[in-house]
Amino acid sequence: MQKPMPLFQLHTDIDERVRLIREDRPDWLCGKGCDSCCRRLAEVPRLTAAEWEWLREGLAGLAPERLAEIGRRMTALAGDPTRPVVCPLLDRDTGACPVYAHRPVACRTYGFYVERDLGLYCGDIEAQVARGALADVVWGNHDAIDRRLAGLGETRMLTEWFESWTGAKHPAP
């Protein structure tokens, strides 16, 4: 499946904002090896239909045993979402996302965007902001991202999308 054009353009725009921030700050905290945001989500991620279709393609390419483990985590999370939420997609041993290229917009923007003067980033970046160390950063506008996401289909929790997919295509993990 090819990425839907509006989603592709949104990813391209986000990638450009991230590139500009990283270009000015090569030591930026968000990067490979940092998974603290994935381990401390405030809630189960919500995805649009277009994001789910793209993510589902990435999930379909995983090894069956990896997909089964993700399925077990999804089921547990749907039944009892303890806080903080650990992303059910996260490879907890390596701290990497097995579907990184297919990750949702919330994952792509976290650490690089703000919403109505509210930083959408971890405590480490927040501490730098409080010290004034990042006063020159041109953050992305998450309100604009939300407006663009609104046109990409219905929104559901990740666990709901996954359940509808596995219930229709696979035996329960």
Mean pLDDT, to the nearest integer, reads 90
The low-confidence parts are 168-173
Please give the largest β-sheet. Answer: 3 strands, mixed
Order of helices and strands: HHEHHHEEHEHEH
The geometry reads as: globular
Which range best describes the helical content: under 10%, 10-25%, 25-40%, 40-55%, 55-70% or over 70%?
A: 40-55%
Number of strands: 5
Put simply, the count of helices is: 8
Strand content: 5-15%
Assembly type: single chain
What's the topology here?
Layout (H helix, E strand, L loop, with lengths): L4 H20 L11 H4 L6 E3 H12 L3 H16 L25 H5 L3 E3 L2 E2 L3 H8 L9 E2 H8 L5 E3 H12 L4
Helix pairs in contact: 4-8
Detailed description of the structure:
By secondary structure, the chain is mainly alpha-helical. It has 8 helices and 5 strands; from the N terminus they run ααβαααββαβαβα. It has helices at residues 5-24, 36-39, 49-60, 64-79, 105-109, 123-130, 142-149, 158-169, and strands spanning 46-48, 113-115, 118-119, 140-141, 155-157. The chain has a 3-stranded mixed sheet. Helix 4 (64-79) crosses helix 8. Mean pLDDT is 90; it is low at 168-173.
